[in-house]
Each structure stands twice: as C-alpha cells, then as structure tokens.
Write a structure and sequence with these properties.
With 425 residues, the chain is an alpha/beta fold. It is built from 18 helices and 10 strands. Helix 2 crosses helix 15.
C-alpha cells in the first residue's frame, strides 16, 4: 500500500513549526459507534507503526450517545469530551452553528488545502464553514443498487439495461412475477425519507439550497423524486421495512434489490454470509435516460474538540486514518467503510475481484461515482426538515395530497415556519 508518512510529517512540521511527526506521544481517546468504531480500531496498528509513542483508545458509545454527549459536552464548555470524535455530515452544522468554539480548526494543525482537495466537494461543504475546517471527511455513501443475481437472471433482466426509474419499475414487475414471494425492494417508508433523499440528491435537489439560505424541497427535481417514490410504492415494488427487517429479508431471500449507500456492502456481506456469489451491484437509475446516476447517503467525519490536551497526536491519528490510502483502505477491507479519499481508488485493493460479489470489482463500480455527487447542505435544521418531510411523505403515499407538488409545497411551508428561512423562488 502507498505510504504517506511524508505528507503527514510535513503537515505537522507546518503546524508546529519545528517538531517532526515522530515526536508525537501520549494518549488520545476517540468516540464513535458500532462498525465505525471497529473500523477506527483497525487502523491503530498501522498508525502505531509510524507513531509508536501514541496510545489510541476507541470507545464505542453508540450513534445517539455520541451525538447527545457531544452536544452536552459543548454546552458545558467542552467538559468530558475526548480528543477525537465522530460526527455525521448531515448533523455537522448543528454543532458548528451552536458551538463553533467547541472544535479545533484543523487548518491550525496542518489540514492544508492540498490535503482537503483530496476529498470530493460534497464531503467538504458541511465541514468547512467560512474559512474554518472543523472536521475531516471520513466515509461516504455513494448510492448503489445491491441486487440478487439469481432473481434477475430468472426473470431475464440485465441490470445494465436499467438506466431509468421507469426501467426499474418494468424490471421489478418481471422479477416479482418470475420469483413469487419476492419483492423488488424495500424502504423505511414509516420512519425515514431515505429513498426520497437519494433520488432527490441524484437530481441535484435537497431540503436547502447550496448556500443553506433557502428552502428548496418543493423545487421540480425534488417533486420528481417524490413522485417516483410513490409510483414505485403504488406499483407494489417497494414495501415498508426498517433496518432490521431489510437485513432479515436479505438473508431470507425475500427481496431482490436494496438501494443504499456503498457502506451497505459490508452489511450484506457480514449479515448474509451464506449468500456469497448471489449478490451483485449496479448504478442507481435516473429520472431520464441521459440523467445523472450518482447520489450520496450517509457518511461521517472526525473532529478534534478544542479541549483536547494532545491535539498534535490527535491530528496525526486523524490524518493517518482519513488522509492516507493505507488508513482508508484498511477500514474498507476490514469493515466495508467506504472511503471519501479520492486517491484510494488507485489502491490495488480496489481492482481486486471480490469473492462475495461473484468476482465483481464492486469498489470500482461504487466509488467511481464519487466525483459526480452533487453537494447537499444539511444545515443546522436538517433534523427539523427531515422530520417534517417524513410525515408529509407518509401522508402523500397514503393519498393525503392530490399531487407531489402539493405535498412538497406543504413540507416547504412547514419548514419555513420552523426555520425562518425563505422558500426559494
């Protein structure tokens, strides 16, 4: 694997003015959750090969606990916070807006534009307010269609022919007819807006404008996304299922396709090991035949609280783990955490046929869309907007609105009341 110690060392020399990277020592604590925490632990061995005098302890607190304790810690002036913590991208601006002094500007530690430019714009837009950079991009969620090869083949459907959502609908009808008891796909229609957000992002639309100053959920591209979701539900191709129910359906063989961020590769592979060779990956369809076919769902970053007493060691760990191919590919190989670092595509591992996926080079297919993803702002109001849209989506799917436009307009009006932001013309 490519070694990037020179870049990390140079960054620290620039930050400290004299001390080389090898001078870092002491202990740092990292907060994260679930498989993300395990991924961070997997990089410690490689990190310690370069920084043997730094002891890294990763604490798996769970997603909600990390969010809640970070908010509480920032509200208390940083009390109890670790040296490094995980922050989901779409929630990041909540922290910057309320507690900008709670986090270290990574530019002060050596996060240069050269390093930052190694990540796609959509991963940076929420992490770099103004002239600061409060977190470094970690994993991403380039959207992919994970599908059962045998079910598609039995129906005579070639996934390469599915270029539009209309194609997907027609293919779904054939697949369900050829495979009784199998549904084309699933979505958490009762508790999440995942499908709407993925298709909307593909079409260049989101809850808010690129600058975060206006509401755009009722713009034509978002309306088209909402229409497609209902069309697929009405056709019986998508049934409601939460996270655990989807995993159960994967293992039981009762679903033909799951659309998710690329990190779902690790979920399928680890939760359904007996189905090796039966799953494959293809690009998400678009609204039109020549339309965009790239979106992002999920992804996190690493930040260093201002109260950390060992910022230099914390930065060395963050930069090794996220800023080197070695760190990023280790997490991908071991736990399926999808890199945001563009140079990771050049790593030999990406070119390897993956046995579970019937020899498909899935990482080339998944990560190949990274630079095509349109940035989407979460803003400090993401949670409010998403909660409103979730309720409106449910109402619309159940016939509560005459049109997708009426539903989106209603969502925009509610979001405007909660946020005080104007609705874009």
């Amino acid at each position: 694997m490519r070694m990037t110690l020179g870049r990390a060392a140079l960054a620290l020399v620039l930050a400290t003015g004299s001390a080389p990277a090898f001078a870092q020592s002491g202990e740092i604590t990292v907060w994260s959750w679930n498989v993300a925490a395990s991924s961070l632990e997997s990089t410690i061995e490689g990190f310690n090969a370069q920084y043997p005098d730094v002891t890294v302890t990763v604490q798996d607190l769970g997603n909600q606990q990390v969010f809640d304790r970070t908010l509480a810690g920032c509200a208390a002036g940083g009390a109890g916070l670790p040296d490094v913590l995980s922050i989901e991208n779409h929630e990041a601006e909540i922290f910057w807006a309320q507690f900008p002094d709670c986090f270290t500007d990574l530019k002060e530690l050596g996060y240069t534009e050269e390093i930052a430019s190694g990540f796609p714009d959509f991963k940076r837009v929420e992490l770099e307010p103004g002239d600061a950079a409060y977190a470094m991009p970690w994993d991403s969620g380039p959207v992919a269609m994970f599908y059962r090869r045998d079910y598609y083949e039995k129906a005579g459907v070639n996934p390469e022919d599915i270029k539009t959502w209309d194609d997907f609908i027609e293919a779904g009808k054939k697949i369900m007819e050829a495979n009784p008891g199998v549904v084309m796909s699933q979505a958490d229609l009762n508790g999440d807006t995942e499908w709407f957000r993925m298709i909307a992002n593909e079409q260049g639309c989101g809850y808010f404008s690129r600058d975060g100053n206006a509401i755009t959920v009722n713009q034509p591209a978002c309306v088209a996304a909402l229409e497609k979701v209902k069309e697929m539900v009405d056709a019986g191709l998508i049934t409601a299922a939460d996270w655990n129910e989807k995993i159960q359906a994967n293992t039981a063989g009762t679903v033909a396709t799951q659309m998710y961020g690329g990190w779902y590769e690790g979920t399928i592979r680890s939760a359904s090991p007996d189905l090796a060779g039966k799953w494959g990956v293809y690009r998400m369809p678009s609204v039109t035949a020549d339309g965009p076919r790239a979106a992002n769902l999920g992804g996190s970053s690493l930040a260093i609280p201002s109260v950390s007493e060992n910022k230099e060691a914390a930065w060395a760990y963050v930069n090794y783990t996220l800023g080197t191919n070695e760190g990023q590919v280790t997490m991908l190989r071991e736990f399926g955490l999808v890199p945001s670092l563009l140079s990771a595509l050049d790593d030999p591992y990406m070119q390897e046929p993956q046995p579970y996926w019937d020899g498909q080079k899935v990482w080339i297919d998944i990560l190949g869309t990274l630079e095509q993803v349109v940035p989407s702002r979460g803003t400090p109001f993401f949670g409010d907007a998403d909660g409103i849209m979730n309720a409106v989506q449910t109402q619309y799917i159940n016939g509560g609105f005459d049109s997708a436009q009426a539903a989106a307009d209603n969502a925009a009006d509610q979001i405007a009341v909660v946020t005080g932001l104007p609705i874009a013309e």
